[in-house]
Amino acid sequence: MRTRDWQRDFATVATPILVGASRCLQQSADAQAAIIQLCIAIAQRLRLKILWPEDADEVNNIKNAIYNACRQAGDLESDETLITLRQLRVIGPE
Asked: What is the pTM of this model?
């Protein structure tokens, strides 16, 4: 039986959505918060859960990396954004 790779699946689905949304928002702290909330909402809609690190600085670094990768993406299927999202720890339904 094949085990699902939830990190890969989530990143593949979320990348174009997050990149597209980031293009519609003017760069700001509110825009970053909106992108992260959208990221969480996508995971919830897919019945997945993002497991954020316990260390607040590490969480901030990950959120900054996601937002920056989305903002700097040249196309909707951005490899950098995909790689950044795959670093998240995501668990799927049992």
From this structure: 0.87
Our CA dihedral for 13, 17, 20, 25, rounded to 10 degrees, sits at -150
For residue 49, count other CB atoms closer than 10 A to its CB. 15
SS3 76: coil
pLDDT value of residue 94: 60
The closest of 31, 8, 4, 13 to 88, measured between CA atoms, is 8
90, containing H or E segment: strand 89-91
pLDDT tens per residue, range 65-74: 999 999 999 8
The values of phi and psi at residue 89, to 5°, are: -95, 115
A 10 A CB-CB count for 85 gives 27
**DSSP code at position 4:** P
